[in-house]
Amino acid sequence: MKSRQKIIPHLWFDFQANEASEFYTKLFPDSKIDAITRYPAEGQKVHGQPEGTVMTVNFDLSGYRFIALNGGPHFRINPSISFFVVCETIEEIDDLWKNLSKNGRVLMPINQYPWSEKYGWIQDQFGVSWQLSLGKHKDVNQKITPCLMFTGNQCGRAEEALNIYTNIFENSSVDGISRYDGTESQDKKGTIKHGQFSLGGEKMMVMDSAMDHPFNFNEGISLLIECNNQEEIDFFWDKLSEGGDPNAQQCGWLKDKFGVSWQVCPSELHIMLLDKDPEKVARVTNAFLQMKKFDLKVIQKIYNNE
Q: What is the strand order of the sheet 105-113 is part of?
C-alpha cells in the first residue's frame, strides 16, 4: 500500500483556486476535490480576504495530491516548477493537450522528440505548466511528477539541490541523471538536462536551463511538507532554511538557498481548519498567521482554548 503523500504542491492563486481545482479534477481521471477551507474574520489584516470566501482547496489528481490557495495578487505561478504527466495513449495526451491549451500558452509544441514519441509543454489558463509525455506509467510509477527548473542565477545548481534534498528526506534516492554534452544548446556541459529522484518515496524531477527565462522560483508554487510532530517541523525547518532567505519566513513558509519555497506544516492543522466550530477555526487561523515556524503545542492549546 502506497504511503500517504508527504510533499504536496501548493498552488497560489489570486481568487481562482476553486475554479482551477474543478477544471483539473474534471480533466484528469480518478480525481476529486477532498476538502475546502474558508477565511474567518480573524487575521483579516494579514490575509486580506473577505470572511467566508474560499481559502484553500485540497484536491487529488489521479492519485496525486495538490492544494490550491486563494492568496490575493501577491505572487504569480510560473514555469520554474511544472508538472510532468505520463500519458499512456495518444488519445489521452491529445485530450489533455486540447483542454490545457485553451486560453493557455505553448512553451514547447507537441511533437516527437528524442526522449518521447510525443511530448509537449503547455502553460494553462491559470498559469500552471504541464509537461505531457507519451510513455509508460511503470517508468515513473507516478502519474504526475513535479519538475524544478533552475534558471537565471540558479542555473547549474540542480545537482547541488538534488543532493541536498535527498540527504534531508528519508527513503530518498537519485534515480537517474541526463547531462548536457556541450554541443546541443547554450547550457554548460555536465549540467543537468533532466534528473529524476525520489524524496520520501515520491518522485521529483530537476533540470538546468541557461535560456533567457523571465522567471525563477517564487511563492507561486511551493512544496508543503506534512509533519507528524514538532520534532519533524524543527528538523525540516532548520535543514531547508539553512542558507535561505530569512525575510521569507512566515506562517510556516520558508525559502531555501535555491529560492524554492517550502511550507513546513503540522498535519493536524488541516484537520483544525476543517472543524465545524467557527470559533476554533478563527482562533487557530489568527494564531498561525502570527508565527514564522509553527509551534504545534501552542496551536493545539489555542485550538482547545486552554
A: 105-113, 116-123, 129-134, 81-87, 144-150, 202-208, 192-199, 173-179
Grid look-up 505520463 returns: 86
Q: Using alpha carbons only, how large is the chain's radius of gyration in Å?
A: 19
Distance set, CA 38 to CA 18, 42, 53, 299 (Å): 11, 11, 5, 18
- Report strand pairing: 64-70 vs 7-13: parallel
Amino acid at 7: I
Kindly report the backbone phi and psi dihedral angles of residue 126, in degrees, each rounded to the nearest multiple of 5, phi listed first.
-95, 0
Q: What pLDDT digit, counting tens, does each position of 151-193 carry?
A: 999 999 999 999 999 999 999 999 999 999 988 778 889 999 9
Look at residue 1 in the predicted model and tell me its pLDDT.
Answer: 41
What domains, with CATH codes, occur in the chain?
7-70+221-303 (3.10.180.10), 81-208 (3.30.720.110)
Kindly give, in sequence order, each residue whose CB lies less than 8 Å from that of residue 303, ignoring residues fewer than 6 positions away: 272, 275, 280, 283, 284
Tell me the pLDDT tens digit for each residue of 118-134: 999 999 999 999 999 99
pTM of the model: 0.94
Could you tell me if 133 and 111 are in contact, meaning their C-beta atoms sit under 8 angstroms apart?
A: no
Residue 113 contacts by C-beta under 8 Å, 6 or more apart in sequence?
119
Burial class (CB in 10 A: 0-12, 13-18, 19+), 214: exposed
Question: How many CB atoms sit inside 10 A of residue 196's CB?
Answer: 20
Please provide residue 192's backbone torsions phi and psi, each rounded to the nearest 5 degrees: -85, 120
